[in-house]
Amino acid sequence: LAAHFTAKRLQGQHLLVTAGPTFEAIDPVRGITNLSSGKMGFAIARAAREAGAEVTLVAGPVHLATPRGVTRIDVQSARQMQEAVQSRLADASIFIATAAVADWRPAEFADQKIKKDGSGEVPAMAFVENPDILAAVASSEPARSGKLYCVGFAAESHDLLKHASAKRLRKGVPLLVGNIGPATFGKDDNALLLIDAGGSKELPHASKDVLARQLVEEIAQRLALSHL
Ligand code: CTP
Ligand code: CA
Q1: Which domains does the chain have, with CATH numbers?
Q2: Whose CA is nearest to atom 8 of ligand 1?
Q3: Rounded to whole angstroms, how far apart are CA atoms 137 and 156?
Q4: How many CB atoms are located within 10 Å of the residue 1 CB?
Q5: pLDDT by residue (tens digit) across 62-115?
Q6: Binding of CTP: at which residues (predicted)?
Q7: Longest Cα pair distance anywhere in the chain, in angstroms?
Q8: If pLDDT is split at 50, 70 and 90, which confidence band does 203 have?
Q9: CA-proximal residue: ligand 1, atom 4 (nearest)
Q10: Burial readout 38-62 (b: 16 or more C-beta within 10 A, e: otherwise)
């Protein structure tokens, strides 16, 4: 019954969500990535769909089934993720960035597999910074005029409240969600710290599916308030 009560809280909204890691190619057979599983982003996509939203999920390389009723766009690199996000932004009313976007990519892509030359020397590798997808979306016109509600996530190893509060301001988002607890990557459960202009609030330890539903409800409440 409770589920039915809150079931259509995002009716009429269009959610765009990023999830998973990105993969930054070095050569045709290698690249750099990270251990993000995409589970939190996929759980949010599912919960938002169940709450009545139209949902577009931009996913890096993950091993997860597409939630029912969700439109999925698969990408590999941060730049592809940014392009996919930009191409769907016009329709969106909520943007949630859960992706663990690689901060840097190799400065150059080698067309052919890099081979050992037998000398024992290791290749030197230069990196360049990837675009900050969330920061770009949060500073876009629809976000600044209040037509697009932006939510960021933060992975911090220490001083979560301090770093995540600073990150919220730096990214220019109304709501920043911190992962509580050391290693959340790949796990089925988590605990979240929600930080907005009014302060912070904890969503205690639970499965990512439960947390996703709670987060959807928190976002629905904030959207309802902003339209009063
Ligand atoms: N993010 C993004 N594009 C990037 C980097 C991060 O969209 N190139 C988003 C993430 O999806 C997340 C938020 O920004 O919602 C914070 O990501 P995080 O990695 O915690 O922060 P960074 O700004 O990259 O800083 P750092 O990794 O140094 O803590
Ligand atoms: Ca980062």
Answers
A1: 8-107+127-226 (3.40.50.10300)
A2: 132
A3: 22
A4: 4
A5: 999 999 999 999 999 999 999 999 999 999 999 999 999 999 999 999 999 999
A6: 103, 113, 131-134, 153, 167, 171
A7: 69
A8: very high
A9: 132
A10: bbbbbbbbbbbbbbbbbbbbbbbbb
CB 94 within 8 A of CB 47: no
Using CA atoms, how far apart are residues 44 and 97, in angstroms rounded to an integer?
11
Catalytic residue among 34, 130, 179, 190: 34
Closest to 51 measured CA to CA, from 7, 3, 15: 7
Ligand 2 centroid – CA 103 distance (Å):
5
CB-based contact 186:155 (threshold 8 Å): no
Reduced to 3 states (helix: H, G, I; strand: E, B; else coil), residue 138 is helix
Cα 92 to averaged position of ligand 1 atoms, centre (Å): 20
- 129 by Cβ neighbours in 10 Å (0-12 / 13-18 / 19+) ranks as exposed
Q: Can you tell me the distance from the alpha carbon of 38 to that of 21, in angstroms, rounded to the nearest whole number?
A: 7
For residue 72, what are its two tokens?
Answer: 């999925």
pTM, 2 dp: 0.95
Q: Is the CB of 160 under 6 A from ligand 1?
A: no
Distance 175 CA to ligand 2 centre (A): 17
Coil, helix or strand at residue 177: strand
Q: Is 34 a catalytic residue?
A: yes
